[in-house]
Structure formats: C-alpha cells, structure tokens
Design a protein that fits this description.
This protein is an alpha+beta fold. It has a domain of 135 residues: 3-Layer(aba) Sandwich (Collagenase (Catalytic Domain)), CATH 3.40.390. It is built from 9 helices and 11 strands. The protein has a 3-stranded mixed sheet with strand order 3-5-4. Helix 2 packs across helix 4 and helix 4 crosses helix 5. The N and C termini lie far apart (68 Å). The structure holds zinc ion. Zinc ion binds next to helix 4 and helix 5.
C-alpha cells in the first residue's frame, strides 16, 4: 500500500514525464514548421564525400567532447541532446531550428573554407566553430529568436564548446572571426573580454575590414611583441597564448613539445607546441604545430619568453 506522500510523489513524477514529452513534441513540431517554412520544397541531402565527411566527423567529435547525446529519437532534453547533423546541397547558410535540428549547406562550408575543400587545420577549426554556434542555439532553446542577444550567447557558447578540444580556445575563435565576420558587434564584445589585462591586447580591425588584425603582448620590461604576423598560424598561436594567460597557466614549466597524434585535425607537422595543465579538459592546449622549419625556433623562443615574463610578473604581483 502506498502512503499518500508516495502517491503524490509518483503522480508528480508522472505529470513531469508527460509534460516533458508534451514539451518535446511541441519543440519538435515547432522545429518542423520552421524547417518547412525555410525549405518549402524540401531539400536534397548532400552526398558523403571529401567535403561533407570531415564536417560529420567534426560534429561528432564536438558532441563527444561535450557529452552531447546524438539521437534520432524525439529529444526530451534539448540541453544535452541533438539529432545527427544534416548537410544539404544548394544552401549557403547554417541554421539551428531547435529540438536538435541543425542544417548546414555545402555552399556554406565552401564559403567558410574560402575554397572547395579542406586543406589545413584552420579550415577544420572554422567549421567546428560554426557547428558549435548552431549547437548552442539549440542547447539554449533559441529556436524562436536567433537574433540580438542570442547571437552573443551563441558566439560565447561556440567558444566554450570548442574549448573542450585541445585545438580549441581563443586562437580558434580568432581564426574563425578572421575568416568570416558578419557579426562584428558580438565578435567585438567577445574579443574585448579576451584582452587579458596588461599582457595581451587584441583588436578587431575596422568596420569595413573586420579581422583580428593587431595582437600585442606587452612584456614587463616594456617590450612590445606583435604576435600577429598576418598568417592564420600566427593569429591562432597569439590567441592560444592569450587563452593560457587568461587561465593563469602560461608558465615555463607548462610549456612542452609533444608528438602530433591528432588525426582529426591535420596540423602540418609531426610535433605540437602545447601548454600542459591538469585543469584543461584534455590535459593540454595546442599553441601551434612544429614542422622542422626555421620558424619553429622563433615560435619556441616567443612562447618561452612570454612564459618567463608572465611568471616574473605574477610572482611580483603575488609578493606585493
Ligand atoms: Zn546564430
């Protein structure tokens, strides 16, 4: 015999369960109507090829790193689940529709790449950022309003989701901003928050030419390093250094060279310059790749100088 308290408990549980299914069904219906509105004549799924395969892999990698469940079933917990990504032909955009639905067009993938195929690590990061942005819209249930403040939330979410991956962080965000910038207001706010007081300053180009154009490191002795040498590689490394400074881990003992065993992200080079720390999701964050070129020495020296300077300054500050 159930006590009245238990009866009420079971009843509440049953109501909650029915409610969550009713809510899930209404989210699903809403998503279906948005998709129907956007594609009144339906759409054509893109074939699995060299362009789409990496995008599916990137999405799965991102879901896995963030503990997002991928399912074909009705989604009852939109904060933790998604449907498999859908890639279609003849669509130059990426959109989230709620209830776990994300659609990306092959034309848009090419727009992000600025070419017809994936060729380098930064291509992968750029697309990963876009998936993260759309995924955030769904996880936060933005399906009714993809504009205004929600865009800033999605951009911040993209940064957070990617930070769970060893190549993710400020650097990959800056690379994406550098490539494709149609949200200068949101990007500017985020980049402002990346400026780690007194150490790094990052600016976002001009209105007509928005890009992560100047990234400086100010050392304690007044030396000013221009970290952005105009290449995506330098923008990435500068951003990653800024990230490690923001996390308080840009210290000499944390800098390491490891074997490049990342198969999903094709960094050119057999070694990676990383910052290792147990507070990081993967135990390390990538600063750049090393490929045996003359540039490698410069990269190592730069990272070491900044780390030593950072250590000196934080020790000084702590002893005050
Ligand atoms: Zn958006």
């Amino acid at each position: 015999m159930l006590t009245p308290v238990r009866k009420i408990f079971i009843l509440t549980l049953a109501i909650a369960l029915v409610n969550s299914f009713a809510c899930a069904a209404s989210l699903e219906n809403h998503a279906a109507s948005l998709i129907k509105y956007r594609f009144p004549h339906g759409y054509e799924i893109a074939p699995l090829d060299d362009l789409t395969q990496p995008v599916y892999s990137l999405a799965n990698r991102l879901y896995q790193a963030n503990g997002i469940l991928v399912t074909d079933a009705l989604i009852t917990d939109y904060k933790k689940s998604t449907h498999p990504l859908v890639i279609i032909n003849d669509f130059n955009n990426a959109m989230a529709f709620g209830a776990g639905h994300i659609i990306i067009g092959t034309d848009y993938i090419k727009t992000l790449l600025g070419k017809n195929k994936f060729t380098n690590a930064f291509d992968y990061m750029t697309v990963e950022g876009t998936i993260s942005h759309e995924l955030t819209h769904n996880l936060k249930n933005h399906a009714n309003n993809m504009y205004g403040e929600n865009e800033l939330v999605a951009e911040r979410g993209a940064l957070e989701l990617m930070a769970k991956l060893p190549e993710g962080g400020y650097g990959s965000y800056l690379v994406r901003v550098h490539r494709r910038l149609n949200r200068p207001a949101e990007n500017n706010k985020i980049i402002k928050s990346m400026n780690t007081k007194g150490f790094i300053s990052i600016s976002l180009g001009t209105k007509t030419q928005p890009a992560a154009d100047t990234i400086y490191y100010y050392s304690a002795d007044g030396t000013k390093y221009n970290l952005n040498r105009g290449t995506e590689e330098s923008i990435y490394m500068a951003g990653q250094i800024a990230d490690c400074i923001a996390r308080g881990i840009m210290l000499p003992e944390n800098i390491a060279v490891i074997k490049n065993e990342l198969t999903e992200i094709p960094f050119a080079g057999d070694k990676l310059l990383v910052v290792k720390h147990n507070s990081l999701p993967n135990g390390y964050i990538i600063l750049t790749s090393l490929n045996g070129s003359a540039n490698d020495k410069e990269k190592l020296t730069l990272a070491a100088n900044i780390a030593r300077d950072y250590e000196k300054r934080t020790t000084l500050k702590n002893n005050k």
